[in-house]
Design brief:
The protein contains 8 helices and 5 strands. The chain has helices at about 25-35, 60-70, 100-105, 110-125, 130-150, 155-165, 165-175, 180-190, and strands at about 1-5, 10-15, 15-20, 40-45, 75. The two termini are about 40 Å apart.
Length: about 190
């Protein structure tokens, strides 16, 4: 079986980008970097959300990769199964709390409550897709900027420009920031500006 990455990420040592890509490739490059710079402080960020990704770099690269796999950041790809029966749709059962009039309305809908709720969620996702993309980009940029640029000049003004969707002002305010940090911020902020 082959391993695949569940996410893409970018690793930084101070304000310098070490690697970007799948978590396995990034881990390999960071491990190599740490062998040459054992005191380096490494931060790894998810490229979608800017959540920090924790990787334990102790030991050999094989040990690091095994821990990555155990953590769920890497997964074993299973061959596609074909055959008789219904395909697994990944349906998850959870509880929903509604008022009685909502349950009454759902019960009268064709297909029942579950089908109607799925349809309503899908419609809301389509309707709000552009707004959601902007909000997610702003959130990811904010998280990354707070960690990597929080002590840089014009940080607060740059955040205001980001949330005001003032691309020109935003780019001007971050222009003097370290190149790798600035480039990553621009990549994250692009959908929001």
């Amino acid at each position: 079986m082959q391993q695949s990455d569940l996410q893409t990420c970018t690793a930084f040592s101070s304000s310098h980008k070490i690697a970007s890509g799948g978590i396995k490739d990034v881990a390999l490059k960071v491990k190599e970097h740490l062998e040459n710079h054992p005191q380096a402080a490494i931060l790894i960020f998810d490229n979608q959300t800017s959540q920090q990704v924790e990787v334990d770099f102790r030991g050999t690269i094989d040990a690091v990769l095994k821990r990555l796999e155990k953590s769920g950041l890497l997964k074993e790809e299973e061959p596609a199964k074909g055959g008789p029966g219904r395909p697994k749709l990944g349906v998850t059962s959870k509880e929903v709390t509604l008022l009685p009039q909502h349950w009454d309305w759902l019960a009268k809908q064709p297909g029942g409550a579950s089908v109607t709720l799925r349809r309503l969620v899908d419609e809301a996702k389509k309707k709000n897709a552009a707004k959601d993309l902007i909000r997610q980009a702003q959130d990811a940029t904010y998280k990354f900027m707070t960690v990597m640029a929080g002590d840089l000049p014009d940080y607060e003004e740059a955040l205001r420009a980001l949330f005001a969707k003032d691309a020109e002002k935003f780019k001007k305010l971050i222009a003097k920031w370290p190149k790798d940090v600035r480039t990553h911020i621009q990549m994250l902020a692009n959908p929001a500006l």
